[in-house]
Predict the 3D structure of the following.
Amino acid sequence: MSQSVDFTDPGFIADPYPGLATLRAEGRPVWSEELGMFLAATHRDANEVLRTRSLGRIFQPKTPADEWDTFNYLHADSILDSEPPKHTRLRSLITKGFNPRRIEQLRPTVASIVTRLLDQMEERGHRGDADLIEDFAEPLPVKVIASLLGFPEEDEHLLRPWSQAIVKMYEVAPDEATRAEARLAADEFAAYVEGLMSERKVQPGDDLISELAAVEDGGDRLSTRELIATCVLLLNAGHEASVNGFGNGMVALLRRGEQRQLLWNSPEEHSATAVEEFVRFDAPLHLFERTATADTEIGGVVVKSGQKIAALLGSANRDESVFDRAEVMDITRDPNPHIGFGAGIHFCIGAPLARIEMQTALPMLVKRFPRLNLASEPVSRGTFVLRGYARVPVTID
């Protein structure tokens, strides 16, 4: 059957979960005329979409090609929008520099950045204008990624606007102003990274750009465009999940007194499971599309070669057949088999870093501000695919 959910309706964007529940109740993928693709809303079907090899992440270049050249290669030459054998090659080269050992070594850096941000947030809080997104959730992953890549601190303010302009293209039916902003951001971001890369090739440092520029596998190296695309992807994907996952989770937590008290009573004990519940309960990424490279059956529905099907991650994470009391936030939930970071070969490469950031930040925030609460109604970003808040005013006293 065809779905009846309007993905652009402000009411749906404000609270997509009742609409997603109607899709999930069908028990099988449904066709969306609005999106031109099948929608896999159950945990079983969404997980299968992510793991099935005949469903590829096939990037369709924007046209006209000359206007979209940079935007197109930032996607076509990234691991997010490529499939084996190219995906295998890129991931092998990238993980030589961006690997679990290097990510784990970032813990002291993350903790130091968190301390500085909490100090600044405390100053603003005493003036009565603290904001959980602007002061904390947003700058934290940007500063961590910038430190990792070796971006000068004075240029950090450029990164989030570039990223947000690019990722708005993933929403349903972006308008022409959004498209123009995305093209400009892609051009400026790529040019900036290329300039840094050129400097590091002459004078290498201990940053990830220098390391990625030098890594090779059997004589193979990342091309200039592949290296630029990788750096842009690490910032975009590496911080969007952290900002929105942390912000969405904290808003939900602060609206539920018993859950808030549970975390405040034992922050160290519950932070790890709380972070996973943040990502499950109000997912930072809701839709991840795939294209069939051959006729493929998912949940009893045949997706014909060339057709698209999307895994609805936020819906899958509320599936009543998998999660007990799926509509209830439970920061002690364990096990928690959410797919908020994806699955299969496209499991989010930045997930380990996002987890370290959130697991470090949460207990430090709780201990610093025992009276932290919402000051007024949070302001949504007004987007569905990448769901999050633009502002979350809080009080700390």
In short: The chain has one domain: 10-395. The longest helix spans residues 224-254.
